């Protein structure tokens, strides 16, 4: 196998960067915010014919006319209700406002990982609900620990939403718990059949390797590039196996390793972009009085303004 030396890999990287910068220079827009390093050896993206405010991010101006976000605009003691209001506004202004980043951390290493997911429900009892694979995924390892790599359970997660047309961000921090098999099945039943089969077929985030020569047969023929199997054939084989297993079955059971994750918030921040980076930020923090860690509609919350 060919080994890449450190010098080679640095050169390789900088040629990619240059290629990207050439492309960027061609498509540079008024709002581009890449910072051209003074004296940088590669041409800065600002070398496009028309001078543009490259290196300066756009101003957040949408909320200026309404005087920004004030404490009186927010619900007292009700971050979930407040999230509901903002989500409804985001839904009217953008497609897929449910898109968010779910961050988890592995313990004891502290190594963080983040991925985009869809928020699927706001639980009336006070939880943010997402659905995923909790068998093999990285989030599963971070949340529930794995004997294999010595990681231990860490239920703390963060969810981050960015609604650009409204110049609003919401940050949620809390503890995650798996939902019951019944709750997961109820949502699973609403998914299109292909997605239900897919949940059975995919060992999420595990490495897919090419099938060994003799086994490739039909898979590589289906790919139309015989001999070029890069691991996709294995996934397609698992899909076929799942289809065979559930042939004629209308109500496919939800796999034990798949389902809902309820995130019970401890802290929810509402962020409204303002001019000159003087954003408005308000954070709700749950008041703990030694009671249960579960979501409950009767929780008490403080509300404070944060410096931008
Ligand atoms: C727009 C978008 C939405 C996604 N929604 C989900 C989701 O709801 N659940 C999920 O498990 N993965 C979702 N994914 C895939 C994840 O980003 C990620 O690849 C997967 O969950 C494996 O991550 P992990 O191994 O770090 O846990 C989505 C990806 C994108 C780009």
TrEMBL record:
Pathway: Cofactor metabolism; pyridoxal 5'-phosphate salvage; pyridoxal 5'-phosphate from pyridoxine 5'-phosphate: step 1/1; Cofactor metabolism; pyridoxal 5'-phosphate salvage; pyridoxal 5'-phosphate from pyridoxamine 5'-phosphate: step 1/1. Residues 258-308 form the Pyridoxine 5'-phosphate oxidase dimerisation C-terminal domain. The keyword Oxidoreductase applies. Its EC number is 1.4.3.5. InterPro entries: Pyridox_Oxase, Pyridox_Oxase_CS, Pyridox_Oxase_N, Pyridoxamine_oxidase_dimer_C, Split_barrel_FMN-bd. It holds the Pfam family PNPOx_N. Residues 36-53 have a biased composition (Low complexity). It is an enzyme of class 1 (oxidoreductase). Residues 33-53, 208-231, 289-308 are annotated as: Disordered. The keyword Repressor does not apply. Its cofactor is FMN. Residues 90-212 form the Pyridoxamine 5'-phosphate oxidase N-terminal domain. Keywords: Flavoprotein, FMN, Oxidoreductase. Coiled coil: none annotated. PANTHER family: PYRIDOXINE-5'-PHOSPHATE OXIDASE, PYRIDOXINE-5-PHOSPHATE OXIDASE. This is pyridoxal 5'-phosphate synthase. It comes from Phialemonium thermophilum.
